[in-house]
Amino acid sequence: MEARSLLIVGGGITGLTAALRLSADRNFSVTLVESSDHLGGLAAGFPLCGTSLERTYHHLFLTDTAILDLVTELGLKEKLIWCDSSMGIFRNGKIHPFRTPQDLLRFPPCSLAGRLRTGLAALYLKYQKNWRGLTRQTAHAWMTRACGTSAMESIWTPLLKGKFDRHFDRVSMAWLWARIHIRANSRSGGGGEKLGYFRGGFNVVTAAVEKQLRENGVAIRTGAVVEQFSATERTVVVNGQSVPFDFCVFTGPSPAFARLLPAQESLKPYAVKLQSIDYLGAVCLVFTSDQSLGDIYWVNVNEPGAPFLVFIQHTNLVDKSCYGGKHVYYVGAYLPPDGERYTLSDEALTKLWFGYLPKLFPGFDAARVEEKHIFRFRAAQHIVDTDYEKKIPEYRTPLPGVFLANFSQIFPEDRGTNFAVREGIKIAGLILGDLRR
Ligand SMILES: Cc1cc2nc3c(=O)[nH]c(=O)nc-3n(C[C@H](O)[C@H](O)[C@H](O)COP(=O)(O)OP(=O)(O)OC[C@H]3O[C@@H](n4cnc5c(N)ncnc54)[C@H](O)[C@@H]3O)c2cc1C
Fold first, then answer.
1. From the CA of 191, how far away is ligand 1's center (Å)?
2. Would the CB of 39 count as within 6 Å of ligand 1?
3. Cβ(253)–Cβ(379) under 8 Å?
4. C-beta separation of 242 from 7 below 8 A
5. Which of 153, 169, 192 lies at the terminal end of a domain, its last residue?
6. Same domain for 252 and 111
7. What is the pTM of this model?
8. Cβ 254 under 6 angstroms from ligand 1
């Protein structure tokens, strides 16, 4: 049989995994196109301190079995390290440790009743396996009922607002169930939470997949933007040129796919469904310094009016010797991509965020910051509201031979590299099945 041409759009983890699986099958001649100048998508790295670091903070959980299997298959297991995690919450002008049940019981910003109710709710969600009944309830309403006002004010509402901005009270409880359930089960027998990271960053995975793809004969084109699908034939315009395909997998955001559809009346309801999924952007400021800012890895910033959601000292997870002895930090926020805060200039953003950091760390010295990088992603988090199950797009699209596989299809789990691998494998299986039929 003559090899079928397969076009993968997107060089993130979903597209890379799908390309890996399908290029291993001799029946396909695979091309992967990526609009940016690098592979890895939201998990892409950049050079820092002689190694590679993700543009947005990344780690793995013990429960991330799909990516862990891939890592083993790629022979990268020895690059993976499991580190003790530590977490805190900044509230009422202070960072409070928030790692263990004892930390919760001692958390001063919340009333005693709120602390006890939060502990019970977390325990319930850890052991509750049936999330379906939670889908149509909002996390905000469910948690308010379970934990009370004090816990909402000091813990849950700021977290939901930080992650979902103005959509915070539309988010499904099934999503929060998955967050708590997975995290609570990502603990090594009896010990604290362990988080996975790669020596050399997540780039070691991307680079190993890229190497394998090239060995499998995949043509990889970066700087290649898919602009428009044809209404009449299996072709797509890439950088102004028509590219034919037998099969195509689009892995970018759902509304972006809607914009590439041909203008046909019959496709309008499908496009409207794709566009009904709202996305937030993410902004991450990464900096290095010779200054240590405490010993906590991950600090949720729950103070009203704070300009960012999270402060991460990456080198409290991974030893600073991996970064030439420098401390590596992330400051991050999820923001509406067309809003004023997302579009602030780098200078204004740095001024605002560095101006706030002394509230968390009174000794923070901006003059000791060495490298500083700001990264923006327009479609970083989709809004999983209580109607979300109805919005999830099918893998098969109305265009013949064209499939959609992206993180908006992941529910109730939060999107993550593990699920990107899972989706990439799933879509490859679907296409192989079609070919065999
Ligand atoms: C702030 C933040 C923190 C995160 N933390 C973690 C974490 O700790 N652990 C974890 O596992 N995951 C984490 N994630 C999630 C993880 O990064 C994503 O789930 C995963 O990388 C998604 O991969 P993907 O391939 O589905 O999508 P993407 O990475 O978005 O890849 C899609 C690719 O398609 C390309 N593309 C889009 N449109 C076109 C077009 N028209 N033409 C050509 N190319 C196109 C894009 O440029 C992009 O490279 C985090 C994400 C963010 C934003």
1. 31
2. no
3. yes
4. no
5. 192
6. no
7. 0.97
8. no
In a domain, 71, yes or no: no
The answer, yes or no, to whether residue 191 has pLDDT greater than 90, is: no
**Pair (392, 264) in one structural domain:** yes
Binding site membership of 314 for ligand 1 (Cβ less than 6 Å): no
Domain range spanning residue 410? 4-58+202-277+388-436
Looking at the fold, whether 133 and 108 belong to one and the same domain comes out as yes
Q: Total structural domains in the chain?
A: 2
DSSP code per residue over 93-151: TEEEE-SSHHHHHH-TTS-HHHHHHHHHHHHHHHH----GGGTTSBHHHHHHHHH-HHH
pLDDT digits 0-9 by tens, 358-394:
999 999 999 999 999 999 999 999 999 999 999 999 9
Indicate if 244 and 393 belong to the same structural domain: yes
Mutate which of 63, 220, 417, 421 for ligand 1 pocket (most atoms within 8 A of beta carbon) = 417
The pairs formed by 122-130 with CB atoms below 8 angstroms and a separation of 24 or more are 122/180, 122/184, 125/176, 125/177, 125/180, 125/181, 125/184, 126/180, 126/181, 126/184, 126/185, 128/177, 128/181
- What confidence tier does 190 reach under pLDDT thresholds 50, 70, 90? low
One domain, residues 220 and 178: no
Q: Is the pLDDT of residue 248 over 70?
A: yes
Please tell me if the CB atom of residue 14 comes closer than 6 angstroms to any atom of ligand 1.
yes
Q: In this structure, what CATH number is given to the domain that contains residue 185? A: 1.10.3110
Whether 35 is in a domain gets the answer: yes
- The CATH code of the domain that includes 273 is 3.50.50.60
Instruction: List pLDDT tens digits, range 253-284.
Output: 999 999 999 999 999 999 999 999 999 999 99
Q: Which residues are registered as beta bridge partners of 391? A: none
Are residues 104 and 187 located together in one domain of the fold? yes
